[in-house]
Every structure is written in C-alpha cells, then in structure tokens.
Task: structure prediction
Amino acid sequence: MNKLYDVIIIGAGVVGSAVAREFARFSLKIGVVEKELDVCCETSARNTGVLHAGFTYKTGSLKAQCAVEGNAEFDKVAEELDVPFKRTGKVVVGFNENDRQSLLKYKAVGDANGVPGLAIIDKQTLENLDSSAGGEFAMHAPSSGILNPFIYNIALAENAKQNGVDFYFNNEIMSIQRKNGFYELTTNRTVYQARWVVNCAGLNSAKISSMLGIDGYTLAGFKGEYFVLDKKAGRYLTMPVYPAPGPTGGFATHATPTVDGNVLVGPNSELVEDFEDYGVTPAGMEELMTEGVKMFKHMKREYFIRNFAGTRPKLINKETRQVLDFVVEARAEAPNSINLVGIESPGLTCALPLARRAVALMREKEELIANANFNPRRKSILCFAEQSREVQKELIAKDPNYGEIICRCENVTKAEIVAAIHNCLGVETVLGIKNRTRATMGRCQGGYCETRIAEIIQEELQKKTTEVMYARRGSAMFTGKVRG
Amino acid sequence: MAMIKKDVVIIGGGPAGLSAAVELKKQGINDIVIVEREKQLGGILRQCIHDGFGLTRFKQTLSGPEYSQRFIDQVEELKIECITDTTVIDITSEKKVIAASKNGLLEYQAKAIVLTMGCRERTRGAISIPGTRPAGVYTAGVAQAYINLYNTMVGKEVVILGSGDIGMIMARRMTLEGAKVKAVFEILPYPSGLPRNIEQCLNDYDIPLYLSHTVTNIKGRSRLEGVTVSEVDAQLRPISGTEKEYACDTLILSVGLIPENELSLACDVELDQRTKGAIVDENYQTTTDGVFAAGNVLHVHDLVDFVSLEAEALARSVISYIKTGKLDKCDIAITTDANISHTIPQKISGFKDCKLSLRVRKPMKNCEINIMQNGKMLKQVKFKKAIPAEMIQIKLDKAELQAVGELKVVVR
Result:
C-alpha cells in the first residue's frame, strides 16, 4: 500500500526532527523517513553538544543568523521540550600574539552578528572562570551553552510524533520520482507518496538533492574523533574551552563538559571519503592527547572511558574547496521540495531556526492552516538519580521498578529502562535505550547493565534473542540461544 | 525513611561478603546484614560454571556455584539476614548506608561497614582500542554472563584480546558451545592468567596464544567483521608492518579487572593508585574509621579461596572493633621496590601477626623476597618461580617486628 503524505521529511537527525516538529504546527499529514533504526544516529549524535553563540560565522550568513537566533531562544526550547541544558558560557583561549589577533577578529565578527556579551579577558579572569582551562588569555562568550544532543533530537522527534507525525525507521531512500504532481519515494522496504519533500539527509543531503533533480552540490566529510572522560574529570571543567581559531577559521580540538558531568575532548579534523567510517585511529587519539591537554589541564589517560567519531558534511565549492554557507532552498527544477544541504556545525544550534525557514518556503507556495491541537511541550523520562531521597521514595512506592537499579554507574532504574523501551517512536535498539537513559554510558560501559537491558528488551517487546539490535541495521547482538 | 541500626552492614553477597558474614556470625556478632544487588547471593561465582575453585580452602575442586553454595548454606543455617535485589546507592563516612529496592529506600546506621563489592572489567574505552564500534565486542565477563546466565550465544568466530583468566576460560567455553576461537593475543611478553588455564583452556583445544601482540583495529559497521592484530615492541607499541587481519564476528576482551570502589569513595576511603582498591591496615580497616574492605574490591585476587580467607581475617578484626570500638594504630608503612606491584595491607601496627599479599611485576626465576625493617632483615623467602598472575602471601610474626620503622619489601 502506498502511503500518501502532505510532507515527507527525509532524515530524522536533529534538523529533520526539528523540521517535522515545526511543520506539525500546521494541519498537514507528515511523515519522516529514516534509514537508521532511531533518530540521532549520525552527525546529530556525534558532536560536542554545544549551543553555539555565533561569533565565527560570516556576518549575514545563514549560519550566523540561525546560530544567534537559535542561541537566544534555547532557554525556552529546553524548557518546552525538557532538554538538559546549561548556559555555561564558553572561553576561547589564546597563548600568543597570533591568537590574540584571532580573538580580536572574531570578537568583532561576533559583535557584528549580534552575539551578546563577548569580552576579551586576562589570565586571572580566565582562571576565576575555570581554573582547569589552559591559555594565557581568552575571549569569553557568556551566551554559549551545553545540551544533551541525543535528548534534544529525541525530544523534537517525540514532540513531532505526539503532534501527529509518523516516523519510519529502517527506510533508506533508493529513488525519488515525480509523478502526476506527487513525489514517489521508494525505500528499501516500501513506497511513500508526498505532495512535498524536505531533504534533511545530512551526510547524504547532496545525494538526495540529486535524486530530487538538483545537482551540483559537493559535500566534504570532515571526520572528528573524540575522547569521553570519566565524571571524575568532569568535576574540574565548568564550561567549554576552545583554542583560538587558526587563519582559516574553524576550531581545533576543544574540551567541553557534558550536561551529565563527563568531559569530551575533541574533535580533530580529517578529510574523509567515506562519511560513515566512524573508526577512531591511533594518530587521531595521539593528536587529541597532545592538543587536549592544552585546553584542559586535567586530561589524563586514566579518565578515558570511550572514544567516538563523527563527520561534518561541509558544503564546498568544488573548484576552490572553500566552505560554503548552509543551503535552505525551494528550487523550480524540483517543485514542492525544500532542500537543506551542507548542514553541519552549528546545526544543533540552528535546527529550529532552519526548520522555520523551511516552513516559510512552503508557505510561499501554499496557505498553511494552524494545527489547533499543537502542543509544543514534551516531557523526558524522569531521572531517578537526580531526585531527592523523598521523591525517590515516592517514585518507588508508585512503581517498584524505580527501586531496581539497572545501570550501577549512572544509577538508572528499571522504570527508566522500561519507559525508554516503550518510547513513542518505537525504537528498540540498545543504543536507543542508552541515549534515552544514560544506561551503559558510565565508566563500566555496560559491563553490569548491558545483559540486563538486553533481557528487558526481550521481555517487554517479546523479542527473540536474535532480534536484539545493538545500534544500526544488521547489528544483531546475539547469534542465538546456547541451548534449546 | 526509618533508620535501621546494625552492628555490621556487608555490601555485596559474593564470596568475600559471604565469608565475612559467616565468620562474624560464628564468632557471635548477630546483628548483621548482607546487602546484595542481585536476586541471588554468590556474586560473580554464579556465572563461573567451570571448576577449579576451592582447592586451597576445601582441598577439592568445585565449580563457582558449588563453591559459593557452601557459604550460602551456612548463611542460611546461621540465619544471617540477607537483603537481595537491593542496590546500595550511597555510604557516608558516618557509616550510614542507603540502598534502593523494590520495597523502597532502606537506610542503615552501622557500627562497622564491610566493603565487599568485588571488581569490574577494564573496557575497550579504557585502553583505547582503535576502530569502529560494531556489535560483537564484549568483555569476557559480559560474554560469560550472556552464555552461562542468559543462555545467549554471543558469536561464532572469535578472537580474544588479553590472556586474563576469564578470557582463557571463555575461549574454552565458546569452543565447547561450537564457536571457532581463532586465537588469544596478549600485549605483554608473558601471559596474564594462570598457567593451569593456559594448559586446560587453550592448549587442550589447540587455541594459539600469541604474546607481544595486540588488536590495532576493529572493523565493521553493524556487526564486527574483523580485527587487525599487530606485534608490539618492548615499549608495547605496535610495530608497523606486522599487521595481520583476522575475520571474526566476536572480539572478547580480557584486559584486566579493576576493584569497584565508587561507593568507597563516597565514604571518603582513600585508594591506592596501584591496586585501585582501598589503603588498608593489618585489620583490613580503610582510612575511614569502621569501614573495612576485603576480596576483589581491595585488590584483584587470582583464586577465590584467598578471597574467603582474607574476608574471614577481616571479620575477626571487625569483631574486635565492634567489641572495643577501636583497633591498634597502624603507623608502620610498607614500601616496595619497583619489581613488586603492591602489598596488602599497606600499613601495620607492629604488635600483631600479619600476612602480606603481594605480586611481582614481571616473571622471575630463582628469586628471593626480602622484608626489612630499620635495616634489619626480617624475612627471606625463596621462590623457584614467581609470576604476576599468582598472588604471593608471606606471614610475619609479631615477634619479628619492631614497634617503629617502615617495612621494606624487595625482590631480587
């Protein structure tokens, strides 16, 4: 059976999910088609989780406009969607005269972009702000912040879902055809029909753009590796510490606290052909160690708990290799399509502003009727570990599953795991449970709880052993029963 | 939340906690409780279905569950209170213990706390193995739990990194269940596990062990597809040009155990950077008054028998502590030379017989361990062979000890 939609959004990363949520404000039948088994599987998950202020982007660019806009509204967004967020501020630190010139340049850019409160600070002020930060002086950006990128993406998608949007996972777009005024999107599993298509395919946005009939975009994949440090290191770091941008702009390895209290050190930057090669490398790790300790004085091997990598799909001029601005467009050669290409950092900060621009492009073509039932609010799974002892007692009295600690490192309870398994998007992977609850994210990395989570998934969803998936399509955790 | 008063709260119902509880109760301490997060007592032994336990303690070879059952039976006979399915979430230096269970939060005020939480496995992240993050990479203990407790097979074509005992035991276990174990790789120039496991788990099944080798890449996006293995030089750095590819769907990591001391830190227990366990005196008392530790939470043991014996010794100290409210001051520090990884205890009183547990850092032949105080040789013990995999214990008689002066342990 073909599925007919007003709007199909390709990609359930943070941008696709934000676009879905903003379109859900109108009376439209909306579907999101995603190749992976969950939202937030590629670039949206594989980044530093920073809410950017917007001082490094060319004045007047979409990156600058959307970053400043997205930054300013984020307290409200985080409150509405129940997203862990802290407006920590950020320091961009310098060591020499070149760095000082760089900071002065970007302060001027930031001031022109409308970034509030930028100030050049001396070493003493820097130490008072964060004594674990390296650097002789810095630019302080008080409006920067940190957020949980998984929960933000999940929150946008869940809020969209609660407002009537359908999500289809494990559906990779194989071809797009326009027939009789409709788009036909053929996936590896089925065919969807839509009056409008929105390309939010991130790493694959140039490919989808070509399928829509819009050629000529070149993406360059910049892979960045990270270390995740134990919460024991997180005690020291209060805000992101970045190095002064070099002559070509763009930040090198930085140290950032996470909202949960860990520290991320990274990314480096390496041009890659394969956008989904997330392998970490000995050279990359060595570079992070050397560069990381300059930003964060307490960077030590004993704090390492995990590595990961992500790829930033930068839109470039094929000839000059110059990095270009975000593209949000509605082009005549692909009527009723909205094309978002080259959305990379600061895409997390810009997701909602970009989504509103996508809505505006559709509105130019047709009248949109407000969805009177739209509810912008959504709640996260309650975190047992963060509650007072009194509240914890009440929770256990209401649901005994709160009394069963599943993840010992993060004190995640069975009630939270069960709530995550029954998420409204229907995600069933171990990674999905992890991103929703923090289970397995601690220092034992699932040594204690992974077996339990796998068991609860099977129990709650009546799954066979061989059906338990770790993260991606084909990532079966088990080959079967040992006996019987 | 009603406060429950106890003489002794024991955290963890594995072999150390069970042994301590039985000894305490036998010696007349009745007001005790074992708090265990699992549904059953027994700790990690529940999943150790192979034999080889109990040779020292019971003079016969038992499986893990059989070994622990001997203690569980005594716990039941002695009617020792056990709270299972209950996880301790906080301990204070005032000896308050808070635990979460389906029946609510429990709060205990203890006279003495016994830390017997065991250890956890070192992970891939902690040793930074390069490569992707597919399904199919398991630590040995997790694979063992899936297979032995959950009846779940983790893979068919297996490579094992690390020659720790659990890794070798899993090599045999997976072979018996029809998997092909291609090889075990050890980064060090000598094995990490016990000689008997190399014989019985690897050699008996023709599973090759490659020393001075490590995994330098993990491949596969969804499920593991293969690993790259390289030889390492004397500094343990991979040697370029020695890479070999192994196709496999499963990588088992047996790369070390770390005492699980998150709760100990909550009650201000000072840790030894070498053992990652508490610094204790001859009474197994930590740096927090009335808080004691034994078993793998204190230092990783080679044999469970020594865990039981250590926990029983701890129990006898706890009894004096409960009865008198204090123990001898232990001001004599014990230092070691570079060839000895650590000693337990780290300090003694000089007024009591005691037993030092230690390990050598590298395999040695025809060596001699010397214990000296104030320039005087207290003890000389000769060994034909000493290996890091095996714990060494040396008894010290109080008559040999002086009241002041650091103890020095050296091996030559």
In short: Residues 304-324 of chain B form the longest helix (21 residues). The first strand of chain B starts at residue 3 and ends at 11. Chain B has a mean pLDDT of 96. Chain B touches chain A through 52 residues (CB under 8 Å).
